[in-house]
TrEMBL record, chain A:
<feature type="transmembrane region" description="Helical">
    <location>
        <begin position="226"/>
        <end position="259"/>
    </location>
</feature>
<feature type="transmembrane region" description="Helical">
    <location>
        <begin position="6"/>
        <end position="37"/>
    </location>
</feature>
<feature type="transmembrane region" description="Helical">
    <location>
        <begin position="49"/>
        <end position="70"/>
    </location>
</feature>
<keyword id="KW-1133">Transmembrane helix</keyword>
<feature type="transmembrane region" description="Helical">
    <location>
        <begin position="342"/>
        <end position="361"/>
    </location>
</feature>
<protein>
    <submittedName>
        <fullName>TRAP-type mannitol/chloroaromatic compound transport system permease large subunit</fullName>
    </submittedName>
</protein>
<keyword id="KW-0812">Transmembrane</keyword>
<feature type="transmembrane region" description="Helical">
    <location>
        <begin position="311"/>
        <end position="330"/>
    </location>
</feature>
<feature type="transmembrane region" description="Helical">
    <location>
        <begin position="404"/>
        <end position="422"/>
    </location>
</feature>
UniProtKB/TrEMBL annotation, chain B:
<protein>
    <submittedName>
        <fullName>Uncharacterized protein</fullName>
    </submittedName>
</protein>
Amino acid sequence: MGIAILVLMAVGVVLMLTRVLPTAFALVFLAIGIALLAGAPLDGTDDSILTGVLQTGSAALASTMLAVLLGSWLGTLMDETGIAGTLVRKIVEFGGERPSIVALGVFAVSILCGSITGSAPAAMLAGVVGIPAMIAVGVRPVAAGGTVLMGISAGSPLELPVWQFLSDALGAPVADVKAIMIKLFPMALVVGIAYVLVRTRRGARHAWAVKLERPKARVRRGDAPWYALITPLVPIVLALGLAVPIVPSLLAGVVYALVTTTKWGELNGRALRSLYKAFQVAAPPIALFVAIGMLLAAVKLPGAKNALTPIVSAISPSGGLWFVVVFVVLVPLCLFRGPLNVFGLGAGVAGVLVTGGIYPLPAVVGLMASYNQVFSVSDPTSTQTVWAAQYAGVRPERAMVSTLPYTWVVALGGMVLTAVSYL
Amino acid sequence: MTDVDLAVRLLRTTPTHENRPESQLREWAGKALAYGDELAGIEDDGEIRVVDREGGAGSRELLLAEHHRGTVTVYSDSLRRVEELARAKGWPVTREALRTAAVAHELAHHLLDVRELNRRLGHTALRFGPVRVRGHVAGAEEIAAHRFAHRRSGLAVSPLLITTALAGGN
């Protein structure tokens, strides 16, 4: 039975890889398929397909969905009020004579954007102005796109919706997730800075180049006031420094962005408009989280758990050293929507590792957080990677080749940290 | 359309300038063009390594030439594309003249002093009372390099006009 479930999972990966099915739909079909193979009844009990998998599972990540929506709202406001654009513009004005300084500045803005929201909206926040600005001062296009991606990834350990996701998906207390993420952040930061410095150290590259597709005219926005520029720090400081829960921290960021940038009479209008826009931005990840919730519910069914645990237990490396070696070698499996992508089938794998008691819960959180650092930058099928690379004028595969050696090192650091701390 | 008009247009499409007033862009455009004129008149050995290569013409971008660490790469396929455009527009421009202009454009990047250009542009990024922090003006280098290329190559059409036309601007 366990083998049949693993074969089904492999089929699911192929369907996602070949784009026959969108990831969210493939995960729903996988959830139903696993539940059927696990012998779950159609209805009538909490472990049934209709109640346990489809009804309860779909709402299992509700807190994550809310955090994603609020992060998207804050991101939308940072765009609409000119906060992100002003940050990048100031960096170019202050450091434009030296490409490496501009790139480091855009990297820093990308960290802030990545800590607020994820995926393509985060890349757009920092990249819409940041990528062409870097290219204009002589940074190579692939390095310009890679800088934004590395920055978003470095901000990811501080991204409150990701904390909520790992907490909800794996059943770990937010405090445990936070403890791991805080240790992961310095590694991602140092490696990201190394990427920027190495990729810009060869000096500026200037070109007589013409974009043949006329770029869409950017919306003209005025500069945001200086005190509004600290908006991205508000939720981080509240959640990290003052231990305020995730939703109120993000809400405080939204309120701060609104009151520091918007006239009193326009507050309601802007707040509502940006909130509705945020629903559109948050729709793809929320659809994914509905499906992941179902998949997690399916692999936690007693039949699935009993069938999968002996197999996964047998093939899972034991001991800290082998844990690091094996899972670092398996890093490529989190790319191209692979089975270790925690925003896909990887959530199911993590669920099996947790419910089977194969590794301590914090170790699974550390493992998945480490993979998250890789695919959030280097996966050429991730929306942020596709957007950043194409906006810079390069193929997403080039962005992968440019960033993967660095993100792999971050993953290695995360695995070592996890093994030393929890195994 | 004058070179100043075209340069203002180039600045307007450069990120960080979307919200600047027309008068400020016009002033910067004039100063950057003047710097390009001045640079073209200065004696230099003009020594630069030039490499010809294919592969500059993509579906989304046309890369005519690039400069990196004292080496200029000129993309022949892009020059052919520009030559076709020139023929269609009836401009008396040959591929060889375009190549000379492309090399000169990159030579300008090799020669020009960005700090000096920014000093002349006089953009204030931050002011604390009497203390002013000078700011960088993205895109001004390109304008100076285009004017330098025009002066040095003797091209019949301004490189700024060619760039605008390629981008579908006229």
